[in-house]
């Protein structure tokens, strides 16, 4: 089993990723990558950095799935990218864990 890597995103600079970061660290994340931008933007440098950093067997953790994608299609594309690299997905709120799938 690899490492748990967290991903937190907020839509505006007025919001704070601290709450998400705390929950991800409590879930075992050794490192948390963040983005502060609208869900409408396709630019997610923090997510891109996480995917580049992650290794086969690692798990990408999010507090909620809506932090990872703004639409079902975008979310599925991201999940397929992760699966192709051997990276599992863990969503704390939805209790989804693909590491055992």
From TrEMBL:
Name the active site residues: 11 (o-(5'-phospho-dna)-serine intermediate)
Q: Do you know which SMART domains this protein is assigned to?
A: Resolvase
Record carries keyword DNA-binding: yes
* Gene Ontology molecular function, alphabetical: DNA binding; DNA strand exchange activity
Query: What keywords are assigned to this protein?
Result: DNA integration, DNA recombination, DNA-binding
Domain Resolvase/invertase-type recombinase catalytic per the UniProt entry, residue ranges:
3-101
GO terms for biological process, alphabetical: DNA integration
What domain of life does the native source organism fall in? Bacteria
State whether keyword DNA-binding applies.
yes
InterPro entries attached here? Recombinase_CS, Resolv_N, Resolvase-like_N_sf, SSR_resolvase
Would you tell me the protein name for this molecule?
Invertase
Q: Which organism is it from?
A: Chryseobacterium phosphatilyticum
């Amino acid at each position: 089993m690899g490492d748990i890597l967290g991903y937190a995103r907020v839509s505006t600079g007025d919001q704070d990723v601290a709450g998400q970061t705390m929950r991800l660290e409590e879930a075992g994340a050794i490192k948390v990558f963040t983005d502060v931008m609208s869900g409408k933007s396709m630019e997610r440098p923090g997510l891109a950095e996480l995917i580049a950093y992650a290794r086969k067997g690692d798990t990408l953790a999010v507090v909620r799935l809506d932090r990872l994608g703004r639409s079902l299609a975008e979310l599925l594309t991201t999940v397929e990218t992760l699966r192709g690299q051997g990276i599992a997905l863990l969503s704390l709120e939805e209790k989804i864990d693909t590491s055992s799938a």
